[in-house]
Design goal:
Helix content is 47%, strand content 19%. The chain has a single domain, classed as Rossmann fold (3-Layer(aba) Sandwich). It is built from nine helices and ten strands. It binds cytidine-5'-monophosphate (C5P). Cytidine-5'-monophosphate (C5P) is lined by residues 12, 34-35, 38-39, 103-104, 107, 133-136, 184, 188. It catalyses: CMP + ATP = CDP + ADP; dCMP + ATP = dCDP + ADP.
Length: 227
């Protein structure tokens, strides 16, 4: 059977990664969460105090970017690859609201994008991959056989993300999550380098009223049509 490249882009908290993981599992493809890579670089910047009390020292981050290694390693208990920052599993640390509040600033830096996009292209060389992010169908794999662009209302996305964070025990308010979702949308769509935009040939999926199972079946059918 032909192995293809599946690019899933869209706004934050649209459930891209949940459905992408299900799809990769079903097709026996590699799954790559590129947002986790930008989050790992953000965590690096926060830990080294390049980001402190709202101030961001971009030059210091750029001088030290060569020290950043972001890799994925399979977690046998979940069957999904966890993200590693310089050999440390940071899967949990990168999902906090603090990291979410800075990640779009870090992701707007061309040098950071260049570093991560090269890795992403390398991971997809052999095809048989489901990759989710913001620029996968436009920049990383413009030749992908299947491109999907996911969206939903900001309220619905914030509600889903809020429930996820609360379930993990994080102390957040719905208003703070909504503010973050709206702010990230604005930064991601307006940045100069690789802004979040639907590729002309991407299929638009508004999942405000569609549950995960239905989304999965839609994407599975779209994939099978191309295999
Ligand atoms: O997907 P997730 O919400 O974890 O992504 C976090 C942030 O990383 C996004 O808001 C965006 O700023 C950045 N990102 C990006 N390009 C990607 C994936 C994520 O700029 N391909």
């Amino acid at each position: 059977m032909k192995r293809i490249t599946i690019a899933i882009d869209g706004f934050s908290s649209t459930g891209k990664s949940t459905v992408a993981k299900m799809l990769a599992k079903e097709l026996d493809y590699i799954y790559v969460d590129t947002g986790a890579m930008y989050r790992a670089v953000t965590l690096f910047a926060m830990r080294h105090l390049y980001i402190k009390e709202g101030h961001f020292d971009k030059e210091a981050l750029l001088r030290n970017l060569f020290k950043v290694s972001v890799k994925f390693k399979m977690n046998p208990s979940t069957g999904i690859a966890d993200v590693y920052l310089n050999s440390e599993n940071v899967e949990r640390e990168i999902r906090t609201l603090e990291v979410s509040n800075f990640v779009s600033q870090i992701a707007a830096i061309s040098e950071v994008r260049h570093l991560l996009v090269e890795k992403q292209k390398e991971m997809g060389k052999e095809k048989g991959i489901v990759m989710d992010g913001r620029d996968i169908g436009t920049v990383v794999f413009p030749e992908a056989e299947l491109k999907v662009f996911m969206t939903a209302t900001a309220d619905e996305r914030a509600r889903r993300r809020y429930e996820e964070l609360i379930a993990k025990g994080d102390n957040v308010t719905y208003e703070a999550v909504l503010e973050n979702v709206v702010k990230r949308d604005a930064l991601d769509t307006s940045r100069e380098d690789s802004p979040l935009v639907k590729a002309d040939d991407a299929i638009l999926l508004d999942n405000t009223h569609t549950n995960i199972e239905d989304q999965f079946h839609i994407l599975l059918q779209l994939s099978k049509d191309r295999i």
